[in-house]
Design brief:
The protein has four helices and four strands; from the N terminus they run βαβααβαβ. The protein has helices at about 15-35, 40-50, 55-70, 80-95, and strands at about 1-5, 35-40, 75, 100. The chain is of the alpha/beta class and about 110 residues long.
Length: about 110
């Protein structure tokens, strides 16, 4: 399965944002080890948004993340945030699986 790994990224400090992103990447690595293809939307979105010069970076990031979510088979939600919940809602609307723990992923 193509599994989106999602959770909180935004934070008050750059350090916390980096820690949040690192956590998503660690979980994505575990998804890969379990035989699935992980996708972390912010990894695709943030570098593009930073280069674009758009004024509303959050909405531009979400536009990309939501487009990617529509193409995934399932989401692994490791924590809630406004962006992660927006992604989760796409999966729920489409009737696609929403997992909250690595152990819920099928082998």
């Amino acid at each position: 399965m193509l599994v989106m790994v999602s959770g909180p990224v935004s934070a008050e400090s750059d350090t916390t944002r980096m820690e949040n992103t690192a956590k998503l990447n660690r979980v994505a690595a575990e998804v890969l080890k379990r035989g699935h293809i992980p996708l972390v939307g912010v990894n695709a979105a943030i570098p593009v948004v930073e280069e674009s010069g758009v004024t509303d970076k959050y909405e531009a990031t979400m536009l990309i993340c939501e487009a990617l979510a529509e193409r995934c088979d399932a989401i692994l939600l490791i924590g809630e945030s406004s962006g992660a919940c927006r992604e989760r809602d796409i999966f729920q609307r489409c009737g696609k699986p929403v997992f909250h723990d690595l152990d819920e992923l099928p082998a």
